[in-house]
Amino acid sequence: DNATYDFVIVGSGPSGSALANRLSENPKWSILLLEAGEEPNWVTDIPMACGALEYSDYNWGYTCEPQSGFCRNCEDGIMQYPHGNVLGGSSVINYMVYTRGNKLDFDRWAAMGNPGWSHDDVLPYFLKSESAHLAVKDDEYHNNNGPLSVSDVPYRSKLADVYVKASQEAGHPYVDYNGKNQIGVSYVQTTTKNGGRSDAEKSYLRPIKNRKNIKIQKASRATKILINSNSKSAYGVEYIHGGKKYRVFATKEVISSAGSLNSPQLLMLSGIGPKTHLKQFGIPVKSDLPVGRKMYDHAIFPGIAFQLNDSIPINLIEEIIDPFTYPKYLKGKGLLTSISGVEAINYIKTNISTDSEDSYPDIELFMFGLSQAADNGMIIRRAFNVDHNTYNKVFKSLESKYAYQVFPILLHPKSLGRIDLRSANPLDPPKFYANFFTDPENKDVATLIAGIRELQRINKTPTMQKYNATVVRTPLPGCEKVEFDSDEYWECAIRGVVSASYHQTSTCKMGPKNDTEAVVDHKLRVH
Ligand SMILES: Cc1cc2nc3c(=O)[nH]c(=O)nc-3n(C[C@H](O)[C@H](O)[C@H](O)COP(=O)(O)OP(=O)(O)OC[C@H]3O[C@@H](n4cnc5c(N)ncnc54)[C@H](O)[C@@H]3O)c2cc1C
């Protein structure tokens, strides 16, 4: 209590952990890392368990505000918004897919007035962080002595091989999607090591826990950043630990790395945010900035499935009850090393993209070696918001069949969400408005449909047809009246079942001072 450090960091996800690690390399600096969550346990190590972790205390348990334009077939019409509440942040509960941004994403940020963020600028940091164990890789884009392990999945279903071959047959080149070219197909690259999860806590915090100049304080929830009204500089943090309020002070910097959902809340509670919104809750305004006014995420469509005529998908239940499955995992092998069944990824530029660059994909296809019926509807369908009724009508019949799913993911959404405070009480969750599929030209839906069409094309290749890959034609409840497989049908289905990817971004947008949407500058300092 009342202690003073050089740096106070709020939040121990990948950003906060990496910062804590790097800043504490300097023995002259003292660092406090505040984290609301507790230590992760061994279950979080098991890649196959990742879909279940959002039902644990390691999740903040957020949900979006219900909205009429999407999620009609989601449980209670509500989209979940899981977010890691644990040392290591969301990297401890995430799906472990290792994908860097497209080169053009970074180059375009830099061109928007953010020096230091071009692909050439950031690549050295990706290299520095990584220890790659990949069978196929573009060597100049990878490194093998960083703290974060990136690996192929040791387990692979026969279906994964078939799907990758079929994609190639459909014209998708095999690529290292974190290398020279992103567009194409690849087995998934994962943040795992020897078949177990590699996360921020293991990579960045565990190795430094004996450093004398850093204090890592768990179960400590920041409620306010203390800001000097005259100088506008942050000088400390208020937080709650064990039901009591404390204050700590920083001589150099207060860093909010509480994630893209909680950082905007913390800033607003501290008086940094849209003036009228803060006044509504009686929060004294320190700086009138558009915090939380923007939010994008990658919408996922989990509503298309394919039936096959042979036992090439993952047989989840049979493998889980196999007494050798856990011993195999302990040796870094077998089903439990699979990241919830995600096996391959395609990046595609659909035929409706209007981007000037051929190397800029607008859809990602997430290939699962199983369907949501593989666990008899217990976890996978819930993790992707499919409600009980929809599951029973559309997917349940697949429990006794060979089936698999590929989820199209929208890469560059036009629809704009936002985050509002619910109240001035820091313990109240903010209000999340995803606003999916609200762009005036309906381009987001159209792009997802274009992704579905490409997926159908892959399933029509001779390689997939050898297994008689056939789309499941039972319509989603509410879409029975439109012709199955018409664009109208897929729009109805997309608006019916959708999941966020939990890649929420832009809630404290980076940009130069003259960018009216920007909250932080290119050095991530609040304007
Ligand atoms: C279920 C799920 C699946 C995902 N799958 C993938 C994937 O496969 N691949 C991928 O690249 N990305 C994935 N992501 C996204 C990825 O995990 C995040 O982009 C990344 O973790 C963000 O890092 P961060 O440090 O910004 O925030 P976070 O990882 O969210 O960390 C923020 C930390 O701050 C703490 N915190 C928040 N508020 C406070 C407070 N007031 N006081 C103290 N501490 C606080 C939180 O408890 C948390 O530990 C997924 C995310 C989720 C939730």
From TrEMBL:
Its cofactor is FAD. GO terms for molecular function: flavin adenine dinucleotide binding; oxidoreductase activity, acting on CH-OH group of donors. FAD binds at V86, N94, Y95, M96, V97. It holds the Pfam family GMC_oxred_C. Residues 84-107, 259-273 form the Glucose-methanol-choline oxidoreductase N-terminal domain. Belongs to the GMC oxidoreductase family. This is Salicyl alcohol oxidase paralog.
